[in-house]
Amino acid sequence: TQFCMLVSHLCRAPIACLFAFDGPERPAVKRGRKVFTNEPDYFQLSRRLIKAFNFNIHDARGDADAALAVFNKFGAVDAVLTKDGDVFPFGAPCILRVNMYVIFSKTYLLAESTPSKLVVDIYHARDIRRQLGLT
């Protein structure tokens, strides 16, 4: 699965990972979709995989994105790996996003994440604010 591939990539990187799961006080709707009230079975399988790779798990009281953003804001984690930017409004200063296609500057070589290579984009809130003239 994609998640297994991601965890496999992360275990080869010189990093410590913390996976966060929504808690019982999670919002009823996230990203315009109704949220599960009970964790699906595949979440339990994901938890087992995370533990098998010796990574840490945090069960948030509410929204996991909000918890990770707070950890990031106060330096407990260096960045938040996510599919979207919804942790920025919670105060996260740095987001990592898996990128399937990346064009490297002057060489214009197309690179993508593969089974042996993980390519990520890095977004800093301060740079986005500066580019938008919000600083």
Instruction: Sketch the major β-sheet.
Output: 3 strands, mixed
Q: What shape does the CA trace take?
A: globular
**CATH architecture assignment name:** 3-Layer(aba) Sandwich
Number of helices, where a helix is a run of at least 4 consecutive DSSP H or I residues: 4
Task: Indicate the topology.
Elements lengths: L1 H11 L5 E4 L7 E2 L2 E2 L6 H12 L3 E4 L4 H10 L6 E2 L12 E5 L3 E2 L6 E2 L8 E5 H7 L4
Structural commentary:
The protein is α/β, with parallel strands linked by helices and 135 residues long. The protein has one domain: 5'-nuclease (Rossmann fold, 3-Layer(aba) Sandwich), CATH 3.40.50. It is 30% helix and 21% strand. It contains four helices and nine strands. It has helices at 2-12, 41-52, 64-73, 125-131; strands at 18-21, 29-30, 33-34, 56-59, 80-81, 94-98, 102-103, 110-111, 120-124. The strands form four sheets. Strands 5-6-9 form a three-stranded mixed beta sheet. Strands 1-4 form a two-stranded parallel ribbon. Strands 2-3 form a two-stranded antiparallel sheet. The longest helix is centred in the middle third of the chain and has 12 residues, at 41-52. The termini are far apart.
In short:
It is built from four helices and nine strands, in the order αβββαβαβββββα. The chain has 135 residues and is α/β, with parallel strands linked by helices.
